[in-house]
Amino acid sequence: MDFFSLVYQALSAKNAQEKCDLTKEIFIHFDKLSFNHSTAILTLGQPTFANFCQIAPRHKIPQGKYLKSDLNVAHLLHSVAHIEFCAIDLALDCAYRFRNMPKSYYFDWIEVAKEEVEHFSHLNELLGFVGFKYGDFLVHDLLFSSMQKANLLLDRIALVPRGMEAVGLDVNPFLCAKVAQSSHKIKAPLLEVLKIIYNEEISHVSKGNKWFHYICEEAKIPPKKRATTYIEILKKHCFSFPKANSSLNTEARLKAGFSKEELELLSDSTFTSSNPK
């Protein structure tokens, strides 16, 4: 079977379970797949979640600020589960749309997709514990639309794994602190899932860092210019931090491969979030 055809099947799957199952199958059988780089690159008109979620502007999505009732907790779980579900597609898209890269590039992003499936599945299971499921609340399409707009591989890597997904490293500790203050029965298992997500997201962002520098090397962008190249790409795509980002997680970002120069440039007020749309 052709790798790219299978990845497109997973990308365009009509329901969450099908996407998760296909992604795990691709990962398991990766070494047996062929790679036909000349096959047509098809585009998605809408994200998979549009089939079972109602899409709304980001500021209308319930966040679960106070973790007291099952409904409060469900809002938080659903919001994080949606990010992880989108992350499956982000990884699959990285593997599908960009051709003629080393085989290890495709393995890296299928491995990421498989781990995002596991994150989503854990969160969806916790949603079930409080009487809800993924698709019960409003969602936004910010990550999907950003993914679609970044058509150059260097831009795509800078904007998504090293931009939007790296935000998770900043937000996760604050989210854990919020959950830790709750007395809800879901607290302990949710903290365990958030810990797993945090540790694996460092690895995911690190893969973005690896391929960012690989592409820079291929494009003959010297190391001393890569930090400013990265920042210029973020500005070109109007990247800004969400309001939940009160500060950069310097330790985690350094572990994931960010340079000190990049972190200094990211601290610039240029990236301060405006009101969400």
Notes on the structure:
- The protein is an all-alpha fold.
- Helix content is 61%, strand content 0%.
- The N and C termini lie far apart (42 Å).
- The model has no long low-confidence stretch (mean pLDDT 93).
- Overall radius of gyration: 18 Å
What string, H for helix and E for strand, traces the elements in order? Answer: HHHHHHHHHHH
Shape: globular
- Approximate helicity band: 55-70%
What is the first-to-last residue Cα distance?
A: 42 Å
Ranges where pLDDT stays below 50 over 5 or more residues in a row are none
Largest sheet: none
The helix tally amounts to 11
Tell me how many strands there are: 0
- The computed structural class is mainly alpha
The chain-level mean pLDDT equals 93
What percent of residues are in strands? under 5%
SSE inventory with pairings:
Layout: H1 3-11, H2 16-28, H3 70-96, H4 103-129, H5 142-149, H6 153-164, H7 167-180, H8 187-218, H9 223-236, H10 250-255, H11 260-266
Helix pairs in contact: 1-2, 1-3, 2-4, 3-4, 4-8, 6-8, 7-8, 9-11
Attribute tags:
277 residues
Brief characterization of the structure:
This protein is an all-alpha fold.
